[in-house]
Amino acid sequence: MYGFYRVACGVPRLNLAEPMSNAKEIEKLINQAKHQNVGAVLFPEMALTGYSVSDLFYNTTLYNEQNRAIKYLLECSKGSNIVIVLGFMLNIDDRLYNCALLMQNGEIKGIIPKQHLPMRREFYEKRHFSDYTIVSDLKSVNYLDRDIPFGSSIIFSDDKGFVAGIEICEDLWALNPPSSTLALAGAKIIFNPSASNELIGKYEYRQELVKTQSARCVSAYIYSSSGIGESSTDTVFGGDALIAEYGSILSRSQRFKFENQLITADIDLDRLSALRKSEGNFCDGKADIRVVKIDKVSQIDDIERFIDPNPFVPSNEAQKQQRCEEITSIQAYALIRRLRASYSKKAVIGISGGLDSTLALLSTYKAFKIDNRDIKDIIAITMPGFGTTDRTYTNALKLCQELGVDLREISIKELATKEFEAIGYDLSKKDVTYENVQARARTEILMNVANMEGGIVIGTGDLSEIALGWSTYNGDHMSMYAINSGIPKTLIRYIVEYFISIYHNIEDVLKDILDTPVSPELLPHNDGEIAQKTEDIVGPYELHDFFLYHFVKYQFSVCKILYLAKKAFADKYSDEVIKKWLKVFISRFISQQFKRSCMPDGPKIGTINLSPRADWRMPSDISANIWLQELKSCKE
Q1: Is residue 53 predicted with pLDDT exceeding 70?
Q2: Is 283 one of the annotated active-site residues of the chain?
Q3: How many angstroms separate the CA atoms of 628 and 490, rounded?
């Protein structure tokens, strides 16, 4: 369901030159894979004979026993649509070829020859195997009394989303791996039956190859290498198996085990399709590939895959310092470039004591430090209004005083009151007009001070607010440079936490800002308590950031986003709550495009940005009906 398939790598216990014994070990792993609802399983290169039998590859008895073992596995596979891929040797016109076969439901669907035969140091495959180009014109071969599709340019498809290609061991290490062409032709899964020996540090390089190729091909990459049962006469094989998807390792075997191993992972082929459509170069190329039909491969309903509830936030805590340094450097250097281009000496920022303005101030402070500018040329203006609480007001003052910027206080109460009087507004209503008049008053002050001081207004609005349209049009919606526009709310919290470790003198105030509920503070407070909590009104930002990520990056269906959110937030929100806020997200994201259509410049930080000049173009007057209707139809 939703494009998820469970795939597996098997590293069977190996007895050299005992094909039937090895077939029975493979059978055990196939049965285990079936029990775990696996749709496809991969085994190593020369999985039945062993890769290290050397000149025994020529032996007629061994070849016949291998074929008998393959017949045995074909019988074992009957009655099931599980895809089985393994390496074997094939005799064509008295020449041996290093090949892989794909079998399913008692039938060999195709045979793929290895394209690159290593002939260096410990490897000497050309001693035993012929160059595949000798038989490159063959479209089929007769094997086990069946004509079977044959060739290097084959992909396997069930016409339901499962599309796979095969390359063998050294093919991955080649300058131009065959998998690149297979991916260009539509293969979203690459199988690699391999026999890669262990050398100091080789496993790290092997992992990087698998990761990188899966990223380059925008594919899943399934890799299984020969185990410890291979000969140790001159080399040792560790049984390294990996499953990767688009540059990430999802699962890896434990090396150096004599026992059978089966690793599994749930791959998302819909995700790969979406990435190829929006980010890949697949539309620019063409490959001459044959498609071999296979039976439908089962998708899975209940995935075991980890769904990150905070996709914008780096999951590796050890890389936090480096990642936050990179993000804030992008902000800082972007601002320096803008200041220089506009011949502006000063930066003007409205400081509320909230998360967004705090990050904007800290990143501006970093920019001024880098560019050797006077910190006093950062004009931080706090503008108390009818809803401002002592907590946020005090935090704003403390932060600015500790940083040493030019702190100014300009109350908006009198200015807003005159505006209410001018338009004849009834102050008892406390509606959107009451809120927006204050927001526009603040923006007016910032713009006028910037003009007066020869500076630019630094926007504080973040990506999450831009997605939801949670801003006042021509109020906080507008600035002269929107430094936070590429950063979602969940990531802002992460970066502010990073600044605590950098600036110890503001640690206490930053911790309190992080603990303060997000609020525009435009409604009167209740005895000093914030009366207007944003997440009570529009929903939790962690949910909205999750929705935004999957809606924009992958263009997933609403039902798939709901399904993923239920998995990601199962321990935190009920299904009903998630569905409620997803409806809000869809409605607001679609309806508020008009604000994004005229948003100010700002630096792109991650892969998702909503600038109408670069990353996101959408009509401002489009309807959300089809997405809302789909949400109603989603399975509970």
Answers
A1: yes
A2: no
A3: 25
